[in-house]
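Tutorial handout. Part one gives the primary structure; part two gives the three-dimensional structure as tokens.
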Amino acid sequence: MLADRPNAVAALTQIFLDELERLLRALAGEPPLADATAPRRSRLGGISCLYRFGSSLNHDVHFHAYVTDGVFMPAAHEAGCDAPPAFLPTRPITSAAADMLPWETSGLSIDACVRIAIIDRGVPSSFQSLKHLLR
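Part two.
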């Protein structure tokens, strides 16, 4: 159904990423926004890739999302534009998400078993680790 509907794919991808960001904010301990018009505080970091074919070259519109296990909080306005954001890590994967890991026929799969620790970011080989994770 989605193969010929790029606007639907874009909308579904945006809904998924918005909900994922909301979940990560909550898991990082950030309270929900009281005012829906308030500017966003923290943001998830990641990329998503759209795929249109499955492993046997069949039509299979799906995407993969590679996201940080936390959110980035912008520096306070007084800190100036050069101040780096703070990273707020999330709690470990919840039992609800762990229960979804074996769902093979639902069209949804979650795999959070491969992680690159924050401490490994400063190691010269961390780029190789990131490259390996994304491949």
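Part three, for discussion. The mean pLDDT is 75. The CA atoms of residues 51 and 134 lie 14 Å apart.
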